[in-house]
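2024-03-11 09:14:02 INFO worker-7 job=invfold-0412 stage=load source=structure_tokens
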């Protein structure tokens, strides 16, 4: 059974930091690109950051230089370090695993709420 379990969300003031964790099981971690997405109320889900199976990273423009995605292949876990948080970062954050080999299935976690107050 595939499981992606996010944790680390919470409420912080602007300028604060949070570290999100996505623990995976039931997948071959090295066969998956890992991504963090977020969805604010009334908005579409958007990509925040992605890290490939090889470790290459890419970020949405508004989080560059503030957020860092990383992965631990021993713990089968992906992280999102979020610094200098802004109220507009408030959203539910989701972890996604996308298999790089066919079938290119994708799995989602249940999400974790991040709330940033001004």
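2024-03-11 09:14:09 INFO worker-7 stage=emit residues=118
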């Amino acid at each position: 059974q595939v499981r992606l379990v996010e944790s680390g969300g919470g409420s912080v003031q602007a300028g604060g930091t949070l570290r999100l964790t996505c623990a995976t099981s039931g997948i071959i971690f090295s066969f998956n690109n890992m991504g963090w997405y977020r969805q604010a109320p009334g908005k579409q889900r958007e990509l925040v950051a992605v890290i490939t199976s090889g470790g290459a990273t890419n970020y949405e423009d508004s989080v560059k230089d503030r957020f860092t995605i990383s992965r631990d292949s021993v713990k089968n876990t992906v992280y999102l370090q979020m610094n200098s948080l802004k109220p507009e970062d408030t959203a539910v954050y989701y972890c996604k695993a996308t298999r790089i080999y066919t079938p290119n299935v994708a799995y989602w976690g249940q999400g974790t709420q991040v709330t940033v107050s001004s």
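2024-03-11 09:14:09 INFO worker-7 stage=report msg="The longest strand covers residues 91-99."
2024-03-11 09:14:10 INFO worker-7 job finished
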